[in-house]
Amino acid sequence: MNKPSTPAGAAVIAVPNDLAAHWMPFTANRAFKKAPRLIARAKDMHYYTPEGRALLDGAAGMWCTNAGHNRDPIVEAIRAQAAELDYAPPFQFAHPKSFELASRIAALAPEGLEHVFFANSGSEAVDTALKIALAYHNIRGEGARTRLIGRERGYHGVGFGGTSVGGIVNNRKYFGSLLAGVDHLPSTYNREHQAFSKGEPEWGAHLADELERIVALHDATTIAAVIVEPMAGSTGVLPAPKGYLQRLRAICDKHRLLLIFDEVITGFGRLGHAFAAERYGVTPDMITFAKGVTSGAVPMGGVIVSSAIHDAFMRGPEHAVELFHGYTYSAHPLACAAGLATLDVYRAEGLFERAKKLEPIWADAAMSLKGLPGVLDIRCVGITAGIDLASRPDAVGRRGYDSMVRAFESESFMFRAVGDTLALTPPLIISEAQIGELFEKVGRVIKAVA
Ligand SMILES: Cc1ncc(COP(=O)(O)O)c(C=O)c1O
């Protein structure tokens, strides 16, 4: 198809704003473009359609906007930063806010995790952490440690590293053989033993011992790192069983495997703490983060790295680059400004503590949907709930999809459906009344799609 060209200086030719050109990510494009769900504006707990209809945000966008939408201090910080410094090269140069933000993030992390490497997304954060793990062993003379261990049903973004250690079949099966030398722990979820658990299920800590089996198969000297989400979010909210993460840490210590917590979702208050590592009293060797660090306002991700790992790189001639890795937009000034303002909001409003306090109220409200037609399980931890609906025999995922559409069109709220699981993860500023409102709406949707 010929496209109209606009010669320099000529009047801009209007292009019809149709929906065809944008190939949307992780979206049923054809169905969307027949009946679009457009969001034009947001404030605090609500999105607004272009027509001005308010939608209660039951998903914090996509697990991002923990501080709520368009918060004035964050908006102001981004505005001021854009006027002051648009961009600074992050290789061999830097701007002051990058150091300030790194210090603030490190201060929130468990003791011993002192250094922050910035990326722009969760996927980049994960691939960065995996590469740091490989390089760390390499520079210490253990270059045979190349295997990476993920977990079934894990989600670690869409880079080749994250896809390889991830364990969601549809995210993997179209993309060839992925990284070599990857193995997977079993998923921690078992409905028979765990259904309708509030918080961490009692059953399942022993599944961490599967790591011993994997070590026995490959030998510890070939394994670089183990990566898990403390709560598997994107697969439909699977909290870690009680004691599971502690056991994983012990096995990693025994065999000198690095343990990476992917806290892209669980970081910044989602489980009532700055990081889930704190909730569980387990210190990994690296934590990946993204999303909540800027409350979704500007893309940013990163890895918090232990001093032991970081310091291992700090040798050789001082003029030499220590880690051959980074992104043009690592520590972008707008992201750093947004991050600092976001951390200020979290602190000033005590939002992590707020999430912790609300957790029992949230869990009771979620569990009130038990017994509705087609509800097979409800899981919750922190300000997060996953509700499994029975799949239609002829159309797996259809009931989840219909729920999302119904919520948007008839109930004026939004959430994320993953297959036939409804994931609810609102901003941490949600009020008790809004928790009630949200689950009432969810209940009506579940009945409507039954
Ligand atoms: C645990 C986890 N890791 C990584 C990612 C990827 O993040 P992004 O979409 O920013 O690349 C996600 C996204 O949901 C996630 O939940």
Task: Please characterize this protein's 3D structure.
With 450 residues, the chain is of the alpha/beta class. It contains 16 helices and 17 strands. The protein has helices at 29-34, 60-63, 72-84, 96-108, 122-139, 160-165, 169-172, 191-194, 210-218, 244-255, 276-280, 307-313, 333-349, 351-367, 398-411, 432-449; strands at residues 41-43, 46-48, 54-57, 113-119, 147-151, 182-185, 223-228, 231-232, 238-239, 258-262, 286-289, 301-306, 375-380, 385-389, 413-414, 416-418, 421-424. The strands form four sheets. Strands 4-12-11-10-7-5-6 form a seven-stranded mixed beta sheet, with helices on both faces. Strands 1-2-3-15 form a four-stranded mixed beta sheet. The chain starts with 28 loop residues before the first helix and ends with a helix. Residues 121-123, 126, 155-157, 229, 233-234, 262, 264-265, 290, 301 line the site of pyridoxal-5'-phosphate.
